[in-house]
Amino acid sequence: MTARALESASLDLATPEHYERHGYPHPEWTWVRQHDPVFWYDRPNVDPFWAITKHADIIKIGKQPELFLNAPRLAVFTRDLPPPEEGTSRHLLNMDPPDHGRYRKVTSQLVHAARDSRHGRQGRARHARGARRGGRRSTTAISSATSRPRSRSR
Fold first, then answer.
1. Terminal-to-terminal C-alpha distance of the chain
2. Could you point out which of 17, 64, 135, 140 has its C-alpha 20 to 30 Å from the C-alpha of 55?
3. Do residues 29 and 143 lie in contact, with contact meaning Cβ atoms separated by under 8 Å?
């Protein structure tokens, strides 16, 4: 694959044609993260969105549900491929309080119960050791493309 010149005006993060020709847009996301980590993506065939590419920014936004909404969009769709009907794709990533907290609590209990039954005492001990060390994990490029500012009319 030959290197493509990247600039903000010509970045393609969402079209099926780009994915077909070039695969996942890793170079584009890297460029955005390095040059414009809070990037307004506005293209003719996609509803505009903010691409938030730095982990710290995503965490900061995620802790302000009174200012930023995750619902109703779960993903970015081109206008020629309509999204699923609203309410048919419920997921923790597109829920806001109070639903998010309730669903997360149930999900967390199920995940921990499954982990404990699979790994028993040794698994719980390993998990506790990791938590004491700060539970440091590697992160990958994350886009909070579906979050948007809350309407001021509320």
1. 49
2. 17
3. yes
Cα–Cα distance between 4 and 40 in angstroms, integer? 21
pLDDT along the chain (154 residues), means of 10: 71 90 93 94 88 92 84 72 70 76 83 71 62 45 45 49
**1 falls within a domain:** no
Residue 3 lies in a domain: no
- Beta strand pairing call for 46-52 and 68-69: unpaired
Which pLDDT belongs to residue 128? 63
40 falls within a domain = yes
Q: Which residues contact 95 (CB under 8 A, 6 or more apart)?
A: 70, 71, 103
Count: domains in the chain: 1
pTM beyond 0.90: the answer is no
Q: Name residue 148's beta-bridge partners.
A: 69
- Residues 79, 46 contacting (CB under 8 angstroms): yes
Task: Give CA–CA dist 148/48, Å, rounded.
Answer: 10
